[in-house]
Each structure stands twice: as structure tokens, then as C-alpha cells.
Amino acid sequence: MIAIIHPTNIQGTLHANASKSSMQRACAAALLHHGRSHILNAGDSFDDLAAIEMIQKLGAVVTKTNDGSITIESKGVSPILNELSCGESGLGIRMFTPIAALSYESITITGTGSLLKRPMHFFDEVLPQLNVQINSANGFLPISIKGPLKPTNIKIDGSLSSQFLTGLLMAFGAAEADGITIEVNDLKSRPYIDLTLKVMEAFGTVVRNDDYKNFGFYKADQKVKKENIAYQVEGDWSGAAFLLVAGAVAGSITVKGLDVFSTQADKAILQALADAGAGLSVQEHQIDVRSLPMKAFHFDATDCPDLFPPLVALAAFCDGTTVIEGVHRLAHKESNRGITLQKEFGKLGVEIKLQDNLMLITGLRNGMQFNAIHSNTVHSHHDHRIAMAVAVAALNASGPVTIKDAEAINKSYPAFYGHLQQLGVRVITEL
Questions:
Q1: In this structure, what is the dihedral angle of CA atoms 348, 354, 358, 360, given to the nearest 10 degrees?
Q2: Is 306 a catalytic site residue?
Q3: Which of 6, 118, 127, 347 falls between 20 and 30 A from 154, CA-CA?
């Protein structure tokens, strides 16, 4: 599919879409919960749907309701099939592999698209220490496992992704680990672990966090498990970051449905907007952003690498050269995002330099004036965040910008183009 974005001055109010980070974790926690779970504000992105399919194949019964919620009934991990697919979800494969390993059954786990190229050597190294037999394609998918996983004191590397730790935390909790500690070296994306621990506690499992270096499990800490649990999926700061940047560069926007006290890492977009000098008003139930002349900023995205694409779109309209740290975190996303951003924004007239762990973006603004984004054709590289980033930049283009493989947004934010249309943007989609 292609999407043609016409330059527009936007205005309006939107409600943030459901967070797939929150939704997928809630699905996993509901699978592990013995009883009934009501998931409110359930997401419908491709990653969310993959998580629902995973828990169904692992034994949960899922019922959808007309009000946008789902009910999940489970007795724990009890696979009904011996082959699972995580779609293209990085969190899905990293979280559900240890969870599936709680079973005595032999299970093969695979995925699609870019997930087939993402390294999974972590499991080859760690799962055998936990009584799990594993065979992989030299550290890549598909993975075959046979448990049951047995918690034990273990040391792991947290530098590649916090998602591996998320899976272990949930599996250890479900296995009722007691007096067991996971020691973690060089943990990245700490806010996502905060979200994991928050979801686990909502379902009754408490984990001690010692400065993100040691995570301890003790039966004495656990809450009395309820038979029925209701969990509200948070609004998505990752998707909303694109909307907020759109308001900062091309008009004004109000976004509702975001928790300003959320542990989601991408809430840090507010700091970047403030540093750039955007017109920003943060209230408990809504966030207002409007366009003002903005200046270059310095931002460390090591713990929130998914912000790189919207930050590049923001920096493109700032005066000066913006510096973003954390490029090393971009290699194993849906695309190699550092190189992809450089290539596709280059087609739009935005110069991006990559220097070791730094990304330098030369803004198009010079004082009160700025050069328009080039009217051109760009490619999403099948990466949802690249598609959204170039769409936001296109709002200030000299003419229409065409995005190839624009359907990539379905991975996390299927309503994105529709939301742009609600803000007054002329969006034409063609198969």
C-alpha cells in the first residue's frame, strides 16, 4: 500500500491509541493468572493480535466484547498447539519464549519479517541454565524448546534488550520462585522494566528491584491472588509521540488518554518538546502542543530508542543541529533505524549524520524561516515508526509525500492515517 500525505496545517483533539507495550504484557499476565481477567481499552495492532493468538495457543480462552475490552480465562500455561508464531513482535518472542517454557511440552516458536533476522542467542545461553532444552537456527528463529523452566539464581546481560528480562521476570513469577534472584548487568530501557513490574503487581506478583541490578522473588512478598482481575491498558506514549510532534511542527493538537505518571519510556517525548521550545501544556487529562519557532536540542534516547523516529521529525524543523544519543540501540529494530532514518529523511532534504553512538540532524529552520521538506517518494522499509515519522515530516513539505509500504503502521498504530485525517490532513491510500 502507498499513502500520499499532503502538506497541511493541523488542528484538533485526539484520544491516544492503546499501548501495545501495556497490552502485550497484560495478555501475558492474564495467561499466567489462574482465573478471569478483564482487559479494558484492549489494543488491536498487529503486535496486540499476535499476543492474543499466542495466549490462546498456550491455553487461554479469549472473548471480545463490543465495548473494546476482552475477557481472558486461564488456568496457566497449558499449550493446545506445539507451534507458536509471534508475528513480527520483538517483545512477543522475547517475553513469550520463557513463558512457553513453563510447559512440559515441546514447542517451536517462530515469527515473520524482520523478526527472523533478530538475534536470539540470549535464549541459547540462558534457558539451559533453567532446565530448558533449546534448539535454534544458530541464534535465530525458529526456536524449539522443552521445559519445564525451573527458576534459579542467574546472571544475565541486559544490554541488548530489556525484553528478555521481561520474559524471565514473568516466567519466574508464574513458577512461584522463592528466594531466587536474577542479577542483571548493564540493563537498557529501564522504564520498560518498570512497566513490566507494574503489570505483574496488578496481577498479584511482586518483584523486588534493587537498583535494576538484582530482581528478587520471595513468597512472603506476594499478594493474595484474586479470581477476577480488571486491568486498564494505558494510552500509548510511543504512538502519541508522533501526534505531539505533529502539533509542534504543523499547527496545534490536543491529545487525551495519556497517563502523565506512566512508566512508559516514551513519555520522555515531553522533555524533548520542552527542550526544543515547542508550545507545550501538560495537564492531568490532556496535553496541548502548538507550533512555535524551535531550536536544536540534545537528547539521550538510550532508554527510549523508539523515540528516534519522532525525534528526527521534530529536529528537522529546529534551528541548528540536534544531537541524539543511543544509535547503538537501533540496529535490531524492524529496520536498522539509524541508517533507514538517514536514507529516507535524506530524500526529504534533511541531513542526518551518524557518528558512533550519536545521530546529528541539521534542522531546516534558520531563525524565523525554514526550508520546506522536499516533495518526494519514500519507503517505510516495513518499519511502522519510519512510516509515521516521514508522514509527520510531510505536513510541512513543498508538495505531497508518497510513502511506500505504508501499511507498516498496522504493527502498532492501525488508526494513524485516520487520525491524521481527523486533524485535517489529506491522506490518500492506494493498494
A1: -40
A2: yes
A3: 118
143, β-bridge pairs:
109, 136
Q: Are residues 292 and 248 in the same domain?
A: yes
Give me 287's grid cell.
496535553
CA distance 335 to 74: 35
Instruction: Write down which residue in 207, 232, 257 finishes a domain.
Output: 232
- Active-site entry in 47, 48, 303, 306: 306
Question: What is the reported pTM?
Answer: 0.92
pLDDT tens figures, 351-407: 999 999 999 999 998 766 678 899 999 999 999 999 999 999 999 999 999 999 999
Q: Are residues 97 and 115 in the same domain?
A: yes
Are residues 269 and 204 located together in one domain of the fold?
no
CA separation for the pair 280, 128 (Å, rounded): 50
Beta-carbon contacts of residue 360 (< 8 Å; ≥ 6 apart): 321, 322, 323, 352, 353, 354
- The burial class, CB within 10 Å (0-12 / 13-18 / 19+), for 346 is middle
- Nine-digit cell at 30? 492474564
